From TrEMBL:
This is Glycosyl transferase CAP10 domain-containing protein. InterPro entries: CAP10, O-Glucosyltr/Glycosyltrsf_90. PANTHER family: GLYCOSYLTRANSFERASE, KDEL LYS-ASP-GLU-LEU CONTAINING - RELATED. Signal peptide: none annotated. The keyword Coiled coil applies. Keywords: Coiled coil. It comes from the Eukaryota. Transmembrane segments: none annotated. It comes from Arabis alpina (Alpine rock-cress). Residues 440-467 form a coiled coil. The keyword Heme does not apply. Residues 140-387 form the Glycosyl transferase CAP10 domain.
């Protein structure tokens, strides 16, 4: 029996040769949306779950004439190291000892060779998300092999691939990961929480973003608490522990105890109910934090402690347009000033909060998340300079092999909630062109200049406070 480990439990997977091919589906393309729910066997004693063969192999969606959000431009940048040489098997396999799993797409089918188990269900929902992509856009993802890392920190550091005297420098291996760093080559990919984080009762992003959008309308911005709010686990990062030491009436800081929350049914941790303050603080955890999208979505002015790591969508955020920048080493002083500034410039603060919320709720709809994944994998697939093979030990995965063996519970619920029921009737958005070198330089300089201006305001404010003492 082939098994896929799941946070202490097990998910049965389908060996390649057991896939159900008794049911056939016409290869004509789809023009009308047809729903394809999970096809789980009624008999729970069935030992091998098969992948149905009746899902469309391709579709014929209508062109989407909308241009993709600007953050799609970073796809070109992330794949730049392999643009000229392509990706050979030798190059790819040099990252195999760092990956949690190898994922193969061949002929529209997904196969996984797992090397090690991730924390909680990160790997499960990452794989689940890719499986949903192929249901969203059947026949549009090319044959490819990729390696995926599910830890917090990037692994492929630029310093290890710089030319050095007497050392033959090799091409960095491509490794997919949830976050990037200016000093790393890791390829940034949407994290597992877009399809749910059942261990801490976080719903899949489509449902949760809609709930937050309703939640932000419950309390008008002017009537919200005029303070900066943060709730999280300070134990995972020094920056968070330093933040908790900031004793000032302008801040409302709360320690999140997930074990206690679990015992009490997560009554006080619903994210859609945490949009009651004018200002919300984002500070990284061990590396990036999945909380950034939830905080930005709240319609509060986000006080963003300058991150060291980035998510796939965050590099196009602009300070003072989508958030207020906070220096890591001056968190307390910077936050206090930001709150005072906001309470004296309420319309401007409200606009920054509204822009950040719109950026996330509009530009990070699940349709765009799938479009980003599609373009990233299509571009990555074009770089393959190798025969895509399903290695020994790899198992085919599909919604049925992943969800059907799970009898109830939050994991099964998250899978059902995030299941793509039919191919999209709308094609992917139009991919924007790559950054021109001068364009990117100006964009980064603009962000830096805005941050310097905010530092100037902050220093002037505190100088005035010292004079009053």
């Amino acid at each position: 029996m082939d098994l896929f480990l799941l946070s202490g439990g097990r998910i049965k997977v389908t060996p390649i040769f057991t896939r159900n091919t008794n049911v056939t589906f016409s290869k004509t393309t789809l023009t009308e949306p047809l729903n394809f729910p999970l096809q789980c066997p009624p008999d729970k004693n069935i030992t091998i779950q098969t992948c149905p063969a009746n899902y469309p192999e391709e579709s014929n969606p209508k062109d989407d004439l909308v241009t993709c959000p600007d953050y799609f431009k970073w796809i070109h940048k992330d794949l730049e190291p392999w643009r000229e040489t392509g990706i050979t098997r030798e190059t790819l396999d040099r990252a195999s000892d760092k990956a949690h799993f190898r994922l193969i797409i061949k002929g529209g089918r997904v196969y996984v060779h797992q090397y090690m188990k991730s924390f909680q269900t990160r790997d499960v929902f990452t794989i689940w998300g890719i499986v949903q992509l192929l249901r969203m856009y059947p026949g549009q993802v090319p044959d490819l092999e990729l390696l995926f890392l599910c830890h917090d920190f990037p692994e492929i550091w630029r310093r290890d691939y710089r030319p050095r005297p007497g050392v033959n420098v090799t091409l960095p291996p491509p490794l997919f990961h949830y976050c990037g760093h200016s000093g790393a080559f890791d390829i940034v990919f949407p994290d597992w929480s877009f399809w749910g984080w059942p261990e801490i009762n976080i719903k899949e992003w489509n449902q949760l973003s809609e709930a937050i959008n309703v939640g932000i309308k419950k309390v008008k911005w002017e009537e919200r608490e005029p303070y900066a709010y943060w709730k999280g686990n300070p134990g995972v990062a020094k920056l968070r522990r330093q933040l908790m030491k900031c004793r000032d009436p302008m801040l409302r800081l709360y320690r999140q105890d997930w074990r206690r929350e679990g015992r009490h049914g997560y009554r006080t941790s619903n994210l859609e109910n945490q949009c009651t303050h004018r200002y919300k603080i984002y500070v990284e955890g061990r590396a990036w934090s999945v909380s950034e999208k939830y905080i930005l979505a709240c319609d509060s002015m986000t006080l963003l402690v300058k991150p060291f790591y980035f998510d796939f969508y965050t590099r196009s955020l602009v300070p003072m347009e989508h958030y207020w920048p906070i220096r890591p080493r001056e968190q307390c002083h910077d936050i206090i000033f930001a709150v005072n500034w906001g309470n004296n410039n309420t319309q401007k603060a409200k606009t920054i909060g509204r822009n950040g919320s719109r950026y996330v709720l509009k530009n990070l709809q699940m349709k765009y998340v799938y479009d980003y994944m599609l373009y990233l994998l299509q571009s990555y697939g074009k770089l393959m300079r190798m025969n895509v093979e399903v290695p020994e030990g790899a198992k085919e995965v599909c919604p049925e092999t992943m969800a059907c063996p799970i009898n109830g519970g939050k994991v099964r619920q998250s899978m059902e909630d995030s299941l793509v029921m039919s191919p999209s009737v709308k094609g992917a958005c139009e991919m924007p062109p790559p950054f021109e070198e001068d364009e990117l330089k100006k964009f980064l300089e603009k962000k830096e200049n805005v941050e310097k201006e905010v530092v100037k305001w902050t220093n002037e404010y505190w100088e005035e406070q010292r004079k009053k003492q």
